[in-house]
Write a structure and sequence with these properties.
Elements: E1 2-3, E2 9-15, H1 24-35, E3 40-45, E4 48-51, H2 55-61, E5 68-74, H3 78-89, H4 96-104, E6 125-127, E7 129-132, E8 135-143, H5 160-182, H6 189-202, H7 205-216, H8 221-237, H9 242-262, E9 277-281, H10 286-291, E10 297-302, H11 310-317, E11 322-324, H12 329-334, E12 338-342, E13 347-350, H13 354-374, E14 391-396, H14 402-407, E15 413-417, H15 419-423, H16 431-445, E16 449-453, H17 480-486, H18 488-501, E17 506-511, H19 517-536, E18 545-550, H20 553-557, H21 559-562, E19 568-571, H22 573-581, H23 599-615, E20 618-621, H24 632-638, E21 642-645, H25 647-658
Parallel strand pairs: 8-9, 9-10, 10-11, 14-15, 14-21, 15-16, 16-17, 17-18, 18-19, 19-20, 20-21
Antiparallel strand pairs: 1-2, 2-5, 3-4, 3-5, 6-13, 7-11, 8-12, 12-13
Helix pairs in contact: 1-2, 1-4, 3-4, 5-6, 5-9, 6-9, 7-8, 8-9, 16-18, 18-19, 22-23
Bound molecules: phosphoenolpyruvate and magnesium ion.
Amino acid sequence: MMSSQASDIVEQIVVVKVHEGLHARPAARFAKLAKTFACEVELWRGEAKANAKSSVKLMLLAIKENERVTLRAYGDDAAMALQSLAEFLANPEAGLENSSEVELQPITQHSVQPLATSNSIATNQRQGLPISDGFALGPAYSYFPAAIVIDQRGLDAADIEHELAKLQSALNAVQARMSVSLGDHNISAADKIIISALAELIDDRDIRAEIETEIQSGKNAVASVDLVSRRSANALAQIEDAYLRARGDDIMAISRQLCLELQGKADIDLSNVPNGAIVVADDIGAFDLAKAPLKNIAGLICGVGGTTSHIAIIARAHAIPAVFGLNQTVHEIGGAKTIAINGRTGTILLDPDTRQVTAFNQEAGQFQLDREKLQKFKSVLPKRGDGVIIEVAANIGSLDEIDAAKAAGALGVGLFRTELLFMLHRTPPTEQQQFETYAKCLRAFAPDSVIIRTLDVGGDKPVPGVDFLKEENPFLGWRGIRMCLDRPLLFKPQLRALLRASTEGKLKVMLPMVSDLSEIIRTKALIEECQEELRKEAVAFGNFELGIMVETPAAVFQAAEFAKYVSFFSIGTNDLTQYVMAADRLNASVAHLNDVANPAVMAAIAAIAEAGTKAGIMVGMCGEAAGREDLVPKFIAMGITEFSMSPARILPIKKLLANSSH
Ligand code: PEP
Ligand code: MG
C-alpha cells in the first residue's frame, strides 16, 4: 500500500479475482461493504473512477476478472477500508465473507471468534462460506427436490398433436402459477421482479417455437423442453455479459417447472417450511425461494457457492443468516435434527450438545447486544439551536434497502435513485411495475416523506430500451431531465406511476440535472398532461411536491428564480463538485480538484442554501457530502435542514448531531 500526498489518503492497486468481475451482484456487495466505512472510497479502472459506495456506478465501470484496478480511500478509517475492500476484490468467491458482515453489522468492525479454532474442531462442526450475517438455531428442513428423469422415447406421428397440446397446457399451468405469485401480497416487490423475469421467459416465442419443432420432429415434450432449454442456457453461457449469462439459470428453472408439469408431478416446495427452520438445500431457485414464507426461515444452508445466485441476494435482503458452499455435505447436514448456524463465520453445528448450545447462545446474544448498541442513536431527532428539525434520511436504489434504512432510523428517503429499476430489466419497467415499487416504498416510510428522483441516466450510464448516441462528453450531454423530456414515452409512465403512488404516502419528486427553467416548466406541463389522462381513465392519483436537484452551476446561479417554481432543493454534491470545479468525477488525473470541500464548491452550496431559505423552501442535500461528519455542521450553519445518505452513514451522523448543538 502506498500513501499519496495527504496523510489520510491511501491507495492500493489490486488485480480483481472476483469470479466474472464486478457485475450487478458482486458490485452491490462491494458497495455495501464500502458503506460500512466512514471514509470516502473510489475505485479506478484506468482513467475511469466510481464511488465505491454506489453499486450502479461500480457496475458501469464494467470491471472484469483479472483486471488491475486502483482503490483510493480518504478519511479516518481509510487504511482499514482499503484492506477489507482489497481482500474482497482478490477473492474469487466474490468476497462473500466480507459482504456477509455488511448486512447486519453495518457500522462497527466488531469481530466474533469462530465457535472452535482449527485445533479444536468439533466432530459435528462443518465450515462453509458465510453469506449472510446472523445466528440461528433451529430444526433442519431438508429441501432436496428430485432430479428430473428425461425419457428419450420418440413419438409416433399420430401422437404429435396430442404432445403439442400437452405442452400448451403445461405452459399455461406454469404461467398461471406465476401469475398467482405475482398477485400475492406476501411476496416482496424484489422477488416479484425475479418471478416476472421468469414469466417473461415462459412467454418467449422463439423458445416455444423451438420446443414445438423438436416435438414435431418426433421427440416427446419433456425431452424437447429439456433439450431446447439446455441449448439456450448453453448459448447464454457463451455471452460476455454476466447479466445475460445468469439468465441461463432462469431458463433451467422454468424448464424444471415445465417438465414436472408434463410428468404430472408436483415439485417439493418451500411453502410449508415451519417457523424457525433452518433450510438445507443443494440450491434453491429464486422462484422457489420467492414462494417460501421467508419469515419462517431462520437460516439457510446451501451446497452451492452461489456467488452469482439470486438466493444469496434474497437471504441478505431478508436478513436470513446463511452459509453456502458446503457441496455434497449438505445431504449429511440435512439429516441433522437441529442445526446451529453462524452466518458471520460460516460455521455450522449439527445436533449441538448442551455445552455447544450454551456457547452458541452466548455468541448470538453478544451479536444482538452489539447491534442494539449501534441502534442507540436510531431514534435521535436532531434539531438546530432554534428548534428546527434536521432530517436525516436515506439514499436507496431498491426496495431491498428499505429495511437497512429503517433499522438505522432514517427519517424517510431523501433520494430514491430510480435508475436501478431500469438497469436491471431488459426493457424499461412498465408504469404498473413502477407504481408498485414506489407505492411500497411510500407505505414503508409513511408518514415520513420519500423523495423519488426521476430517471437520471445518460451516455455514461445507459439503460436498456433507450438508444444513446456516442457523445464526446456524456456528462455534458443528453442525460437526466434532458433525455427524459425528449422521450415522453419513457418519462410519462414514470410520472403517471408517481402520481398514482402518491396516494400511498408522503411523496416528493425531484428532477435531476436541471439547468434551465424551461425544464421545470415543461415537466410541470407533462405532469398536468398525465393528470388529465389519469382523470379521463378514472385512475386514482394524488399529488406530490416537486423539487429539483441543484447540481449544475446554472441551477446555482438561477436558484432564486427556480425556487419560485419548486417546493424544495436537494443539493447533488457529487455532480455539483465536478461541474463547479470542471473536474470530471470519473477522471483520476483531476481527482484532487474534484473536492467538495473546495471553497468554490462550498460557496456554491452556501448560495443555494441562501436562495432556498430566502424563498422559504426546504434545502436538503443528497450527494455523498451529506454523510460527511466534518462538513455537515457547516452545511447546517448555511441553512440546510435535510441530509440524505446511505443507510450505513445515518447512525454516525445522528450521533454527531446528537452530541453537538447547532
Ligand atoms: C449527486 O450528483 O450528488 C447525486 C446525488 O446524484 P448522482 O450521484 O446519482 O449523480
Ligand atoms: Mg447527480
